[in-house]
Write a structure and sequence with these properties.
Strand content: under 5%
GO cellular component, one term: Ssh1 translocon complex
Keywords: Endoplasmic reticulum, Membrane, Protein transport, Translocation, Transmembrane, Transmembrane helix, Transport
Membrane topology: Single-pass membrane protein
Number of helices: 2
Distance between the termini: 69 Å
Main location: endoplasmic reticulum
Pfam family, one: SecE
Number of domains: 1
Largest sheet: none
Number of strands: 0
Radius of gyration: 26 Å
Order of helices and strands: HH
Shape: elongated
Length: 70
C-alpha cells in the first residue's frame, strides 16, 4: 500500500522536475529570430485566408445551384 502511494507521489514530482528543467533550458528568441517567426506566421495566415476565401467563393454558387434546383 505504501509503495502505491509513493508511486502516485513520484509521478507529479518527476513531471514538475522535468518541467522546471525544460523552462530553465529555454531562452527568449532574439529580435531577428522573432521577426522571422512573425513573418512565417503572417504568411501562413494569408495563405490559409486565401484558401478559405477561394473555397467559399466556389462553394456559394454551387450550393445555390443545388439548393435552388430543389
Amino acid at each position: 500500500m505504501a509503495d502505491q502511494v509513493e508511486g502516485l507521489i513520484d509521478i507529479p514530482r518527476e513531471f514538475l522536475k522535468d518541467g522546471v528543467q525544460f523552462v530553465n533550458k529555454c531562452q527568449k528568441p532574439d529580435k531577428k529570430e522573432f521577426i522571422k517567426i512573425s513573418q512565417a506566421i503572417a504568411i501562413g495566415f494569408l495563405i490559409m485566408g486565401t484558401v478559405g476565401y477561394v473555397v467559399k467563393l466556389i462553394h456559394i454558387p454551387i450550393n445555390n445551384i443545388l439548393v435552388g434546383a430543389a
